[in-house]
Amino acid sequence: MVKKFSLSDASFERSPGQEGDIDTANMVDQRHGGPITIGYGRYGPNQELIERMAVDDVMVVLEGKVSVSANGATVTAGPGEIVYMPKGEKVTIRSDEQGAVTAYVTYPHWQEARE
Amino acid sequence: MVKKFSLSDASFERSPGQEGDIDTANMVDQRHGGPITIGYGRYGPNQELIERMAVDDVMVVLEGKVSVSANGATVTAGPGEIVYMPKGEKVTIRSDEQGAVTAYVTYPHWQEARE
């Protein structure tokens, strides 16, 4: 079934395994029987998240700005820009002073891959 | 490798198999060795595209408005909203008078699935 999601539908939860002010809200995931997870992410100001990617993860920045560092290189993305974090990469994700809102798509499901 | 994409990096091509003013620009696809395709879509005003989904497709609306009809139901999405079109669905995608820009992620690669 075709589904539409809005930020106002999102039930945010603290992103697991870290203490920062970073929340995620899966809109589609392993509970729905498809191959991909879809959700919204919300970063408070000046937050940092370090993670080795267990899945392929695409982040579309909707508000604010996010920088992603990996292997000594850093990219910074604002509204309408996309960051692709392939499985296996060790990344550091940082928000700036304005925080950020993102949409994400992962293959396969990130919650299962982390377990 | 982590990669960042902007709309200004996109090389748009006419979306295959249809005559409307609808263009796509894959930024990541089967050429890059990963499991997913990532790209930008651009719809002129009042365009229509009818398709049976060969892949799972997630569309994030960046500008304008897109409506998607399937099985007699229609959803309409604007900036920051997400439409999920699962594999197997027959969908009609329409832009309104302002046209639209979207980001998309498909699993697996849509160009291969259509061949």
Features:
homodimer, 115 residues, mainly beta, 1 helix, 57% strand, globular
Could you explain how this protein is built, in words?
Two copies of one chain form a homodimer. Chain A is mainly β and about 120 residues long. Chain A has one helix and nine strands, in the order E-E-E-E-E-E-E-E-E-H. Chain A has one helix at about 110-115, and strands at about 5, 15, 20-30, 35-45, 50, 55-70, 75, 80-85, 90-105. In chain A, strands 2, 3, 4, 5, 6, 7, 8 and 9 form an eight-stranded antiparallel β-sheet that branches. The first copy, chain A, is globular, with a radius of gyration of 13 Å. Chain A starts with a strand and ends with a helix. The relative contact order of chain A is 0.27. The mean pLDDT of chain A is about 95. The interface of A and B includes residues 34, 85 and 101 of A. Strand 1 (about 5) of chain A pairs antiparallel with strand 8 (about 80-85) of chain B, so a sheet runs across the interface.
What is the gist of this entry?
The structure is a homodimer. The first copy, chain A, is mainly beta and about 120 residues long.
SSE arrangement:
2 copies of one chain form a homodimer.
Chain A: E1 3-5, E2 13-14, E3 22-28, E4 37-43, E5 48-52, E6 56-70, E7 73-77, E8 82-85, E9 90-107, H1 110-114
Antiparallel strand pairs in A: 2-3, 3-4, 4-9, 5-9, 6-7, 6-8, 6-9
